[in-house]
Design a protein that fits this description.
CATH class of the largest domain: Alpha Beta
Shape: globular
Oligomer: single chain
CATH topology of the largest domain: Aldehyde Oxidoreductase, domain 4
Number of strands: 29
Bound molecules: dioxothiomolybdenum(VI) ion
Helix content: 10-25%
């Protein structure tokens, strides 16, 4: 049944008790008999050839079962083993198979894997492997890679270089007011608390089971089956819990192939839990960006041109395009002319990947800082500048956005924050000795839709079990899907069990792009419709049912647990009575996986507004974020409490981006120099104030039958700009290079 409330109930996590008592089993916590342990050897140069490897000492070290190198690793049957043509067949970002030859393309690349009975034995033996290289001159920064740079046309079928009209006349027009600035962001690393890890166990040569921390069990199953020439049903992927991912577990990475290879070579199950250090090189990161923004506006603040030119890093082991701007600057404001351009510079650095709002996160940061700069040029309030350029229609497609409530988000945010009390002049507001700054920014993220199927089983005792090979990354997906199942099936919340994280279940897509709630929710909706139909078919054949001899098409769920005639709800029957009278213990249906329908009349995008306060001691200019109000318009919110947590998580990560996070590389070796949680600073409690989250709008039923557009990523977009804009307002200093560390404010 369609639920028209925007806010669903404030459920606590159904998996909360399992997590707080330690009973929730993460991939590498499964106890597999005879399981051996792996430790990697990684390259210490960033480009070159391995000329010699001496593994003798390692091989004779205590407990060692196998030392894999490019010289002896059993290579997969399929040389490429890449992601399929379709995303549903799995994702490879690093496309080169590990240990496939003697070449080194980045520092930290796996060049050997030691398998031993214990982790300590494997780690010690790995330290005994001796490697000689013939190094070559690497490309370690974008400036050095200019000759190799490319302007990609597409990224996931989407135009990377979108354009509307001609921006140049407006940018050259001296009557218009403008901003031309360059903003830069560093490499950032995801750093989920659970490091990536896998246990691989072969049964003979034809059957493989992996317990694997992943955002895509079906994708891993598909790639492993193709790579090793196995039947799909003979590859099982199990992943009931994920301890955070943020995109770094979306693709299949080299460690997963290595563990599978090693288990084959060693003849025992192998566990390969990545050390934190390797999380900085072998499972992707957010690419660094340099972004040039040019704006031209009338004196009333109407944008005449937006030009967003990005430079981002790629790699030599696969393709990565960050798409800064294509789905943010190109769609956010109603400008006469828009141009988004991106150039990718391949480096001898580990390959980037999806990281929470890939593209939109750095892109919105740059544009929203530039708009703040424009507001001072125009002497207009930053909110007013945005309202003056509000886009009712998608600027490129020319169709209206569905259920867009961005104006309301600005209004509610400004009210809750107290924005009207802001002194517009920078470096004027004080709290004792501290400088106070107030900044704001828009948030946005596209609404993505994929395909999924769900199986629903209803039992005569009133319980229901719903299954889909989807994922809970720590986001609350178990709870949201239990809630959706309860509403759609018409079964009380307490009686629904939702199961995920197993490749045996019907197809679930990658838990990425904030798509899961809507996509899997739609599959649950479809399964519920099928279940109600199957029950109706039983009822019309049942002489004892009030629905006897009615037409199945005239029957619908009229209340939770009850089917009745649409036109005469007095004639009704309940689910469990129908089942019991039919002598059935249970009834099961499985929805079909269908390509999502395309609605050409609407554009779908989520929106929000961040308002942020910072306080800065002028003597030691460390920025403290003291208040954040975030208002989000994302269609229906399935479970209010967990949705709020998701947005808080995005804001926290964005504060990290604004003030702390950067992966630094040794300019000589190309190796990360801060690959640990001590030196890569993610926000701690002391860095984070109360974050006040609100939701506005309406369920977006034009988008899907759940009305939900997803919330995983939008929270991080724009918040770094809101912080940077607040820092400018506090100090009069515009820092355009993240993170805003104290040295930059001195
Ligand atoms: Mo998200 S970066 O799409 O896992």
């Amino acid at each position: 049944m369609a639920n028209t409330n925007i806010l669903g109930p404030a459920r606590s996590r159904v998996d909360g008790p399992l997590k707080v008592t330690g009973r929730a089993k993460y991939a590498v916590e499964f106890e597999i008999p005879r399981c051996a342990h792996a430790w990697p050897v990684v390259s210490t140069i960033s480009k070159g050839t391995i000329t010699a490897m001496d593994t003798k000492a390692a091989e004779s070290a205590p407990g060692v079962l196998k030392v894999l190198t490019h010289q002896n690793a059993p290579q997969p049957t399929e040389a490429s083993g890449g992601g399929g043509a379709a995303r549903s067949e799995g994702i490879r970002i690093e496309e080169r198979n590990p240990l496939s030859d003697d070449k080194v393309h980045y520092a930290g690349q796996f060049i050997a894997l030691v398998v031993a009975q214990t982790l300590e034995q494997a780690r010690y033996a790995a330290s005994l492997v001796k490697v000689n290289y013939a190094p070559e001159a690497p490309l370690l920064d974008m400036a050095a890679a200019r000759k190799e740079s490319e302007k990609p046309k597409k990224n996931n079928d989407e135009n990377v270089q979108p354009k509307k009209g001609d921006v140049e006349p407006a940018l050259a027009n001296h009557i218009l007011l403008g901003v031309r600035q360059t903003y830069s962001t560093p490499t950032e690393t995801h750093n989920p608390i659970e490091m990536s890890g896998i246990i691989a166990a072969w049964e003979g040569d034809r059957k493989l089971t992996v317990w694997n921390a992943t955002q895509f069990v079906k994708g891993v199953q598909s790639i492993l089956a193709r790579t090793y020439g196995l039947d799909l049903e003979n590859v099982r992927v199990i992943c009931p819990f994920v301890g955070g991912a943020f995109g770094c577990k979306g693709a299949l990475w080299p460690h997963e192939l290595l563990a599978v290879m090693a288990a084959k070579a060693a003849g025992v199950p192998v566990k390969f839990h990545l050390p934190r250090r390797e999380m900085f090189t072998t499972t992707g990161h957010r690419t660094p960006t340099v972004q040039e923004i040019s704006l031209a506006a009338t004196s009333k603040g109407k944008l005449q041109a937006i030009k967003h030119v990005s430079h981002t890093a790629g790699a030599f082991v696969g393709d990565w395009v960050e798409s800064c701007g294509a789905r943010s600057s190109a769609v956010m404001y109603a400008s006469e002319a828009i141009k988004v351009e991106e150039t990718v510079y391949p480096l001898n650095v580990a390959i980037p990947t999806f990281m929470r709002a890939p593209g939109e996160c750095p892109g919105v940061y740059a544009l929203e800082c530039a708009l703040d700069e424009l507001s001072y040029v125009l002497s207009m309030d930053p909110v007013e500048v945005r309202l003056a350029n509000h886009a009712d229609d998608h600027p490129l497609k020319g169709v209206p956005f569905s259920a867009k409530h961005l104006k309301e988000a600005y209004q509610v945010g400004a009210e809750k924050f107290g924005w009207s009390k802001r002194n517009p002049r920078p470096d004027t507001m004080r709290d004792g000795d501290l400088k106070v700054g107030w900044g704001m920014a828009t948030a946005t993220y596209p609404a993505h839709k994929m395909s999924a199927a769900a199986k629903a089983t209803l039992f005569a005792d009133g319980r229901a079990v719903v299954q889909c090979a989807t994922h809970d990354l720590g986001t609350g997906a178990y709870t949201a899907f239990t809630q959706i199942s309860s509403e759609q099936l018409g079964v009380p919340y307490e009686k629904v069990t939702f199961e995920l994280g197993k490749s045996d279940f019907p197809f679930g897509p990658v838990a990425g792009g904030s798509n899961s709630t809507g996509t899997v929710g739609t599959a649950i909706h479809d399964a519920a419709q099928m279940l109600h139909r199957a029950l109706a078919e039983l009822a019309v054949d049942d002489a004892q049912s009030p629905l006897h001899r009615a037409k199945v098409n005239d029957i619908a769920m009229i209340a939770p647990g009850r089917l009745g005639l649409k036109k005469d709800p007095n004639k009704s029957d309940n689910f469990t009575d129908i089942l019991k009278r039919a002598g059935k213990n249970a009834i099961a249906v499985q929805s079909k996986m269908e390509e999502p329908e395309e609605d050409k009349k609407h554009a779908f995008q989520s929106w929000g507004a961040h308002f942020c306060e910072v306080k800065i001691d002028p003597l030691v200019p460390r920025v403290q974020v003291t208040r954040v109000v975030t208002v989000i318009n994302c269609g229906r919110v399935v479970t209010a409490k967990l949705a709020r947590s998701q947005i808080i998580g995005g804001v926290v990560m964005g504060i990290g981006m604004a003030l702390h996070e950067a992966t630094e590389y040794d300019p000589k070796t190309g190796m990360p120099v801060n690959p640990n949680l001590a030196e890569y600073h993610v926000p701690t409690n002391a860095d984070i104030p109360e974050i006040d989250v609100h939701f506005v709008g309406e369920p977006d039923f034009a988008f899907n039958p759940i009305g939900a557009r997803g919330i995983g990523e939008i929270g991080i977009t724009g918040i770094a700009a809101a912080v940077a804009n607040a820092v400018y307002h506090a100090t009069g200093k515009r820092i355009r290079d993240l993170p805003i560390t104290p040295d930059k404010l001195l």
